[in-house]
Each structure stands twice: as C-alpha cells, then as structure tokens.
Fold this sequence. Notes:
single chain; 395 residues; SH3 type barrels; eight-stranded mixed sheet; five-stranded antiparallel sheet; 17% helix; globular; phenylalanine catabolism; Fumarylacetoacetase; EC 3.7.1.2; metal-binding; Fumarylacetoacetase-like_C
Amino acid sequence: MTWLDLPADTGFGPANLPYGVFCPAGGRPRTGVAIGDHVLDLAGLTGDPVHATGSLNAFMAQGPDAWAALRSMITTWLTDPAHRERVEPHLLPRDAVTMRLPIEVADYVDFYSSADHAENLGRMFRPGSPPLTPNWKHLPIGYHGRAGTVRLSGTPVRRPHGQRKAPPDPAPVFGPSLRLDIEAEVGFVVGVPSRLGTPVPARDFPSYVFGVCLVNDWSARDLQAWEYVPLGPFLGKSFLTSVSPWVVPLAALSAARVEPPARDEPLLDYLADGDQPWGLDLTLEVRLNGAVVSRPPFARMYWTAAQQLAHMTVNGASLRTGDLYASGTVSGPEREQRGSLIELSWNGQEPLTLPDGTTRSFLEDGDEVTITATAPGADGSRIGFGEVVGRVQAS
C-alpha cells in the first residue's frame, strides 16, 4: 500500500522501485526511483551526493547492505503517510523529466543462453547436423562486446556499413547492412567489483549484481555471417546496443525466481546452482511499428545470470562497477515467442505480415522496435521494466 494515487496498471508500484538517472527541467542529472507516473528525486530528498553524480555507479559500488538499507527507507517513505509532507515535493512527473543512461558502462558481455534460439539458428545454418554445438550445454557461450556503443533507449539506430558476401558472390562487397535485426534480451548490471584472479561463485550472484534492465542488441546479420569465422561477432554487433532507462533491483524479483529448465548434461561444480537457482519468470513483448510480433519467455533460458557470472569470472577475470552482461536473444519454442527477426521470418523464407499489410524479413529504414517486459511482484502485482526503443535510420 502507498499514499500515492497510482494508476491501476502501473508496473512501477511499491514492489518494484527501479532506479534510473534523470534530468529535471533546467537541472543536472541525478538518481531517481520510478513510482507510478512519477520519479522520486533521491538527490533532493536525501541530500546524499552519491545520488547527484549523474550515474548509478557510485551508489551501486556501496554494495548489498547499502542497497537494502535505501530500498527499505524508500519503501517506508512511500507507504507511511507520516512522510508524505517531506517526500511529496521531491516527486516529479516522469513525462516532465529527461532520462539518461543509468550507468557508466565498464565492460559489456553478451551471452547465447536460450536453447530455443540456438537450436533455431543451428537448424537454419547447419541443416543435417545437431542444432547445438558440442559445447553448448556444458558452458554459457558468450563474447565481449563494445561498451562504448551501449546507449540509452531512443538513440537512433543508424544502419551500419561493412563487408558482406552472399553465397553466389565471388568476392565481398562494402555497403549498408541489408539484414538488420533485433535481439530481445535481458541485461544484468554489476554493482560490486571483484579482485583480479578471484572467481565469483554462482551462489554469490546477489552480492555482486545490482539489478536488471532490458536490452536490444541490434545485429547486422549479413555483416556477422561473413566476419564471424573463426573469432565470432565483431562489426555486425558492435555498432549499437540499446538499454532501457530503468534498472530493476534484484530485491524486487524475489517472486519471479523459478527453477531453470532441466539440464541435459551434468554441470561442472562451478556451474552447479541446484541449491540457489536463479531462473526468472519474465515475459518480454516485442513490437514492430506498434504491432506485437513476439512474446519471448525468459523462464526458459537454459543458462541463468548466476551461472553466466560464474563462468565469466572462473578464469580469474575481474568485475568492475558498471559491467553489463546480457542474456542473449530470448526465444521460446513457438513461432510467436521468437526474439529475433531472423527466427520470426526463418531467415527470410517466411516473412512477417504486419497489420498494415506490409511484410518484413529484416528491418527497413523508419521501422521502430519496442521491447517491454513484466514479472510477478511480491505483492501480487506485475513489475514493469519500462521499455527499450529504437528507430532505424538510413546510414
């Protein structure tokens, strides 16, 4: 319960309290918490300079005890009417502020953890062979992306240029990507750094990871197909990664935790998570030019964020505050649950038909993609993650 008058369908109720960075009209960037249609200005309310840095990094670096203490205080401020007079002047309409990138991104890693997605791509590109590579069910496959091109939702998606080579062509050509795609993903934000040479066990996931955001890891499939052998994604992925402005704290997701899918292969000890599973029951929604084209289920992800963190550091690689790692494309077993256009159109063989009668295999200039997600909240509500939006521009 809260003394605020909240919209009935808000995803930003008191069970959520996601963090973001915003600029009030004529003001400097500061930390805020979304509640209903408002933003609670933490810098103004608390006077703590950690909330006036223009980034969540300084606060996230304080660790889980500080995260829990502030969340408890915010909950009290917004639910106990005795605090209303003090708090209300620091509640600003969300539509009157400008959102900023919530974190200073240190490193970026993208995983490949949906068996449905990986099997779909395997069937497309390796017909007659097992759809999954031999290592897929033994370790979370990932690659290091480019932190400098992680940008806030709403940043224009300029169509990238690069080399591409279609099978009949004798040599590669240079030009704009003709197969620009989306990847509907979930991102995890590291708050606490780790020491070089010291792996982070899967059980310590909530001691290091601050929260969750939405990610669209745009992909130029034709550039990627030509360049990725033998070292993997490069220019076909590095041109832009879009993230949502709100970071939902792990503490808000207790009711969303579920068992991950049954594992087909025995797990090595450092990946074992039977005592503390971190599957998450999130439902994503992908819209193309306003039309829903997919609802990917995150609960089916074979590898969890805790296992990804353990694998990412098992060789001694260190974490930094502001590290971002993403789940990889989220897909389900049904066509309407696929989280990328290459799957939805089956590599162009089965184009999508949109409500206006037009068809799409890959993105055209002017297309707009919006990804949203919800999860069950501890109070029976649905927690919202905001949205990550991007519109394609001609290069």
